[in-house]
Each structure stands twice: as structure tokens, then as C-alpha cells.
Design goal:
Keywords: Coiled coil, Membrane, Transmembrane, Transmembrane helix. The protein has four helices and no strands. The chain is rod-shaped and about 205 Å long. It is mainly α. The protein has a domain of about 120 residues.
Length: about 230
């Protein structure tokens, strides 16, 4: 009896799969033992007809029947225990799956809410960025326009200054050219007057006479506008 109790305690402390295997092994062993016992008893009954042997056979049959009933009861108990444990495991797995599903749903809801929040923020930021870009482009356009105006004004002033310098240089060159031409003309006029006076008067004039005649001729030429506008 102690052996059966120890075996019973060992069975209940084992894992579920091991318990099921042990149960099946015990049931098979019990059935085999009972079959052997019954066969032996029936064999002896056929050869023994005395009341003593009948009593022994009857007691053996009762013990075998009792052992069979006890084994069946233990088997039913083990099957019920295994079924209960399986139901507990199934329930725990189902609860774990439900918790996992709820956590996944919550995680997806958080991701969806975060995505919507980002989209809303982008929808708010885009008009601000558009307005900022418009202001930036307007500022850049204004700055470029001012820089272009400044450049055009500076270029115009530079061209005007260069043109004025060119005009001044041209006037100076013309003035120098006029002075040089006037000097040449003065010399030619003096030579012509000297020749004309010598031919007309048939005599040579003194330097003072030449000077007076030349000055009078130059004054008359200037009045007539030969060297420029009349004075």
C-alpha cells in the first residue's frame, strides 16, 4: 500500500506529459497482470475441484477484481486530473493570448494616434512654412532688386564718370590741337603777311612794323570768325 501511495505521489508531482505516459503504462501493466492472473486462476480451477482450492480461487478472483477496480478508479482519477490540468493550461494560454491581443491593439491604437498627431502637426506646419517661404522669397527679391538698383546706379555713375573723363580728355586734346594749329597758322599768317607786305610795299619792314601789321591782321581775322565764333 505504501508503494502505491509513493507511486501515486510521484505521478502527481511529474509534468503533465510524463503523467499521461505513466498512466497509460500503469493501466497497460495492470491489465496485463490481471489477464495473467485470471488465466492462471482459470487454469487451476479447471484442474482443481476441491473446496479449498475453490475458496482460494474465489479469494484470488476477488483480489484481482479489487485490484482491477482500484486501477480503474485511479485511472479515472488520473484522467480527470489530467483533463483539469489541460483545461487550466488551455485557459491560461487563452488568457495570455487575449492579453497579448489587447496589448497589440493598444500598441496599434497608440501608433495610429501618434501618426494622426504627426499628420495634424504637418498640416499646421505646412501653411506656416509656406508663409515663411513667401516672406523669405519676398525679402530675397527685395534685396536683389535693391542690389540691382545699387549696381545699376553705380554702373551708371561709373559710365558717366568715365564718359565725363573721356569728354574732358577729348576737350583737352582738342584744345591742345587748336593751340598747336593756331601756332602753325600764326606762323603761316605771319609769313604770308611778310611776303605780301614786301611785295606790296616793295620794301622790307622792321620787326615792330611787322608786329603791328600781324596783330592788326589777327584781330581782323578773329572778328571775322576765322579762328572760331566772332567776338
Amino acid at each position: 500500500m505504501n508503494t502505491i501511495q509513493s507511486l501515486w505521489s510521484t505521478i502527481f508531482s511529474a509534468p503533465l506529459v510524463s503523467v499521461l505516459i505513466i498512466i497509460l503504462a500503469l493501466v497497460a501493466l495492470a491489465l496485463a497482470v490481471l489477464a495473467v492472473v485470471v488465466i492462471q486462476l482459470e487454469t487451476r480451477v479447471r484442474y482443481l475441484a476441491t473446496p479449498v482450492f475453490d475458496q482460494i480461487v474465489h479469494e484470488a478472483q476477488e483480489k484481482a477484481q479489487h485490484m482491477l477496480e482500484e486501477a480503474e478508479a485511479q485511472s479515472r482519477t488520473l484522467r480527470a486530473t489530467a483533463q483539469i490540468e489541460a483545461e487550466k493550461i488551455f485557459t491560461a494560454r487563452k488568457e495570455e493570448d487575449e492579453r497579448f491581443r489587447l496589448e497589440e491593439v493598444k500598441h496599434l491604437e497608440e501608433i495610429t494616434a501618434h501618426t494622426k498627431d504627426l499628420l495634424n502637426k504637418q498640416a499646421d506646419i505646412i501653411p506656416q512654412l509656406s508663409e515663411h517661404m513667401k516672406q523669405t522669397f519676398a525679402a530675397i527679391s527685395t534685396r536683389l532688386e535693391k542690389e540691382y538698383e545699387t549696381f545699376a546706379r553705380d554702373a551708371k555713375k561709373q559710365v558717366s564718370d568715365e564718359l565725363a573723363n573721356e569728354i574732358t580728355a577729348a576737350r583737352k586734346a582738342v584744345e591742345v590741337y587748336k593751340q598747336e594749329r593756331f601756332a602753325i597758322l600764326d606762323e603761316e599768317i605771319v609769313a604770308l603777311i611778310e611776303d605780301a607786305a614786301r611785295i606790296a610795299l616793295n620794301r622790307s619792314l622792321s620787326l615792330a612794323d611787322h608786329r603791328g601789321i600781324i596783330l592788326d591782321a589777327l584781330a581782323e581775322a578773329k572778328k571775322q570768325g576765322i579762328f572760331g565764333s566772332p567776338s
